[in-house]
Write a structure and sequence with these properties.
Blueprint: E1 5-10, H1 14-25, E2 30-34, H2 57-69, E3 74-78, E4 81-87, E5 90-95, E6 100-108, E7 112-115, E8 130-131, H3 134-137, E9 146-149, H4 155-161, E10 168-171, H5 180-188, E11 192-194, E12 198-202, E13 210-213, E14 218-220, E15 223-225, E16 229-232, H6 236-239, E17 244-246, E18 251-253, E19 266-268, H7 279-299
Parallel strand pairs: 1-2, 1-6, 2-3, 6-19, 8-15, 9-10, 9-15, 10-11
Antiparallel strand pairs: 4-5, 5-6, 7-16, 12-13, 13-14, 17-18
The structure holds flavin-adenine dinucleotide.
């Protein structure tokens, strides 16, 4: 039986739309299924993405979706894929509204979900004055009083990086301690170390004016950098039997340089399949996955 589509792309953001565009331009029948929850939806502006600096995530993704929709072999559905499985050599997905679609190949571009540290006042500041990526949002808080809130051992690398944007205090939260060598590096970067745990964020959210410590002191801080634990935003990769790697912040779908996963015919791109996460990396990986899925359709491999 002929599949409805050549390729189903699950996730229609930076990675998924980039993959689908290559397939559309190869005149293949493509279905994009997207739940409209891109990871950066909490930020008012996106930065550092080629030609789109300062636009909102919704504007960039909306424009890319509209351009893709012009291609006659493309269908775009706003919905969540609930299940994905292989049946007689095809990939079948079922949406939460019970609709079913099938295709010869599948590209997973489902992104990740951030698990933020548990701290009163933090959630409502995420993407505004609580940040994770200085290349994305550091410029906008340059020369302000900056904090790095430790969530794991890697936080020391963030603490060493952030002083290029402003005077930095590293809040160790009692979960990480610098070695003697690291302490010297932090000193050279003029990082102030605060070992008393932070218990609350202060200020008129989403702005931040300070962090309250467990001993009652308040440290004046304008923006905080954290490194959230990441989780797969969807279980579809797991359902299809894909293997995972453990990255520095969470699991990633194992994929080779052509974005082929451990399951033949399943490609993965974007934040779900790499520890190097930003919109540009996701888009580039999506292009690779789209081209690789096209070649796989031709070769049958
Ligand atoms: C607060 C914040 C700000 C950021 N700012 C920047 C920035 O300024 N510049 C920059 O380059 N990067 C920024 N990033 C990083 C950027 O958001 C990601 O690297 C990028 O969004 C990854 O793209 P993606 O396509 O892999 O995944 P996402 O953009 O996360 O998209 C995944 C898509 O898949 C959909 N999806 C998931 N599961 C399913 C399913 N089962 N069925 C259907 N659809 C599904 C989701 O709804 C979503 O639309 C920021 C991240 C955060 C958290």
């Amino acid at each position: 039986m002929r599949s409805q589509f050549d390729v189903i792309v699950v996730g229609g953001s930076f990675a998924g739309l980039s993959a689908a565009m290559q397939l559309a331009r190869a005149r293949r029948r493509v279905l994009v299924v997207d739940g409209r929850k891109p990871r950066n939806r909490f930020a008012a502006h996106s930065h550092g993405f080629f030609g789109q600096d300062g636009k909102s995530p919704a504007e960039i993704i909306g424009e890319a979706t509209a351009q893709l929709a012009q291609y006659p072999t493309v269908d775009i559905v706003t919905a969540e894929a609930e299940t994905a499985r292989q049946l007689d050599g095809r990939f079948v997905i079922t949406l939460t509204d019970r609709r079913m679609f099938d295709a010869d190949r599948i590209v997973l571009a489902t992104g990740v979900r951030d698990e933020l540290p548990s701290l009163p006042g933090l959630d409502e500041r995420w993407g505004a004055s609580v940040l994770h990526c200085p290349y994305c949002h550091g410029y906008e808080v340059a020369d302000k009083k900056l904090g790095v809130l430790a969530t794991n051992a890697l936080s020391i690398h963030q603490a060493l990086l952030i002083p290029d944007w402003g005077p930095t205090t590293w809040f160790t939260q009692g979960i990480v301690e610098a070695t003697r060598e690291e302490a010297l590096l932090l000193e050279a970067r003029k990082v102030r170390i605060e070992r008393t745990p932070v218990v609350e964020m202060l200020g008129n959210a989403p702005d931040t004016t300070g962090l309250r410590l467990s001993d009652g002191r308040v440290v004046a801080i304008d923006a905080v950098f954290v490194s959230p634990r990441t989780h797969m935003a969807s279980t579809v990769a797991e359902q299809l039997g894909c293997e995972f790697d453990e990255g520095p912040t969470g699991p990633t779908i194992r994929a080779n340089e052509f974005k082929q996963t451990s399951v033949r015919g399943v490609f993965a791109a974007g934040d779900a399949a790499t520890a190097w996460t930003n919109a540009t990396f996701a888009s580039a990986a999506g292009v690779t996955a789209g081209v690789a899925a096209h070649r796989s359709l031709i070769s049958g491999l």
